[in-house]
Design goal:
Two copies of one chain form a homodimer. Helices cover about 30% and strands about 25% of the residues of chain A. With about 300 residues, chain A is an alpha+beta fold. In chain A, the strands form two sheets. A seven-stranded mixed sheet of chain A has the order 7-9-6-10-8-11-12. A four-stranded mixed sheet of chain A has the order 2-5-3-4.
């Protein structure tokens, strides 16, 4: 099947929005909701870098969409549409499974495929996705804005995707739940939307809780005090080293954010959130566990490249 | 240099628009011009597929931007911003030259880098770009809409990029002008904007004049009669075979469009345009040269994949 036939047969059925024009024109056309700010993100997943080459193609599609929607969630945005860049080998079975999975993921999140491009004949898969969303004017969340006195919050649980990676690599016993945390992350869209105009700063946790917290602290020009004992874990950590492994593993796609101490964050939406620290004047991270200071580990998370 | 440092040092200086937020947040935020329709396109260039691996990186950057802006031109849109997906080998010199060239190209076209993602450690370069633009409501051009009686127009000259490809491959003597037509196409933005609400149908010529004309005819449900002798060529064709080679070569990035016969298309803007045929009832292409019918060649242009 040539690229054009592939687009017409396999991608056009996912392009259910009028904006996509049935993928028949040179670009998509969308009348945005009036008076909103628009939010744009583009993340790339490459085989062997961001996922394991033998991960199920449908899960790769889910992850590609989810990590981009997580960026929208981190900006308090509501997703509207996506554009796909699908580049890789001539592997019809992989592509078919990928597109099936992408269709299911788009349906799950209520997002439409607006357009994109496909290339075959390459050595490995390089998958790009652009996600477009909207937010009430001025309510986009950002990493700058955390104020001394604010409380530091994180959604869901941390470190499960790192355990799931070990399962996927055969370094840990099979565990469907952990594997899904690694392969099929859940972007915190509802929470992100609830945090717009409420959180003072926020981002998604993609490279590890500590390294991402350090980035939020730097962008806001503040220090963050984190109580490691308060960090919500899906599975208990056997010892302090294991705890440090969890908070430096990546791929959580939870939201890390700050809000005034007076704000009833838990009441904003159904997503579980946990207070894990405070914003202080200064710079960098100050870790404690059960009231005792803990030295920063040498490695705070994934430093790509 | 790690990815994060590369983004901060090399990409952030190109992110001159407030929408980019200095590439410091998880996504870009843009307040679009009120009441406009927005236009989105995403094209991928892969080394060895869309360009020659030893093409100058700055020219590859130009082409990546230009082909996406050409899609916006084909929709009558005005560009606003772009997102970059830069994936490839660990080759700092190539990347530096690419980013330098991208910066020059963005400046030339007056477009800002809003965001994107980078990945290294891959076998070959896969370059994705999303371009975002806007158009007056309802004035986006499309491939459907050509009416019997309309005149078929094309901008600029056709087939030069095909000759430039032969130069780049060493199959033809060095010729800077032809090489530039292949490596540094000029998206017809001013013409595209002038055609919004005027042309009945339009697209850009990327895969070859004949194959793209066939697509426009199919989308509009009409036939197109094309006078091959009228097709504007940058260099004269020595014989009918050479003429067919020109109209089936790709990478022209000219605009092919239809307009009512009463419309003074040449007066719309400074871009040279040439009438090359008529819209008829029916389907497919009818070629003539000097009034004589010409059989359709077996290959009408590039069929990717």
């Amino acid at each position: 099947m040539g690229e054009r036939e592939f687009i017409a047969r396999r991608l056009a059925p996912l392009a259910t929005s009028p904006a996509a024009r049935g993928l028949a024109d040179d670009a998509a056309v969308w009348a945005p909701p009036l008076g909103r700010d628009l939010v744009f993100t583009h993340d790339v997943l490459a085989a062997g870098v961001h996922y394991l080459p033998d991960d199920p193609p449908g899960d790769v599609a889910w992850k590609l969409l989810a990590v981009n929607l997580s960026d929208l969630a981190a900006m308090a945005a509501t997703p509207a549409g996506v554009l796909l860049g699908l580049a890789g080998p001539d592997d019809a079975a992989w592509r078919d499974a990928f597109i099936d999975g992408l269709g299911r993921a788009l349906q799950h999140f209520g997002v439409a495929l607006w357009g994109g491009d496909t290339v075959s004949g390459l050595a490995g898969h390089v998958l790009g996705l652009t996600a477009i969303g909207w937010v009430e004017p001025g309510k986009a969340m950002g990493r700058a804005g955390a104020q001394p006195g604010d409380v530091l919050w994180v959604s869901g649980t941390i470190g499960d995707a790192g355990l799931g990676l070990a399962v996927a690599q055969g370094r840990a016993p099979f565990d469907r739940q952990l594997l899904n945390r690694f392969r099929r992350p859940s972007p915190r869209l509802a929470l992100g939307q609830a945090l717009g105009g409420v959180a003072t700063a926020g981002m998604d946790v993609s490279d590890g809780l500590l390294i991402d917290a350090q980035r939020l602290a730097a962008a806001s020009g503040v220090a963050l005090a984190i109580d490691l004992a308060a960090v919500p874990l899906g599975r208990p950590a056997a010892d302090p080293d294991e705890l440090l492994a969890r908070v430096t593993a990546g791929d959580d796609y939870e939201l890390l954010f700050t809000a005034p101490a007076s704000c009833d964050v838990a009441a904003l939406c159904d997503t579980p959130v946990t207070a894990i620290g405070r914003v202080l004047p200064g710079a960098g991270l100050a870790l404690t566990r059960a009231g005792q200071p803990v030295a920063l580990p040498a490695r705070l998370g994934w430093e790509h490249g």
